[in-house]
């Protein structure tokens, strides 16, 4: 089975980072420098590079993530629940 790619604008980039990782790093960058869940993956440096190069999509992706299934968002290695991810995305949208 192939890799699932999000079927919206820039979805291939978001897939490369992971939706939960993206929200976690965006939260760290914009709201709480003490939030470090994003740094628990060995590929964080590569993901940060993709993040930096896709800033034009960030607000759009946050609103798309709010539509995602909590169960799927729960399947992350960052020790964050789907509801936590969505709450962080809401806070980010309000700030950005």
3D architecture notes:
The protein is mainly α and 96 residues long. The protein is built from six helices and no strands.
In short:
This protein is mainly α and 96 residues long.
Number of strands: 0
Mean pLDDT across every amino acid position: 94
End-to-end span in angstroms? 36 Å
SS-based structural class? Answer: mainly alpha
Strand content: under 5%
Task: Tell me about the largest β-sheet.
Answer: none
Individual helix count: 6
Radius of gyration over C-alpha positions, nearest whole angstrom: 12 Å
What features would you highlight for this structure?
single chain; 96 residues; mainly alpha; globular
Topology of this structure?
Layout: H1 11-17, H2 19-30, H3 44-52, H4 58-65, H5 70-73, H6 82-95
Helix pairs in contact: 1-3, 2-6, 4-6
């Amino acid at each position: 089975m192939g890799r699932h790619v999000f079927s919206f604008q820039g979805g291939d980039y978001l897939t490369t980072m992971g939706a939960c990782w993206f929200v976690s790093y965006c939260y760290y960058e914009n709201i709480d420098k003490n939030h470090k869940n994003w740094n628990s993956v060995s590929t964080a440096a590569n993901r940060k590079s993709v993040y930096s190069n896709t800033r034009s999509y960030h607000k759009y992706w946050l609103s798309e993530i709010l539509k995602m299934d909590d169960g799927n968002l729960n399947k992350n290695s960052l020790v964050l629940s789907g509801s936590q991810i969505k709450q962080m995305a809401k806070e980010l949208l309000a700030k950005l």
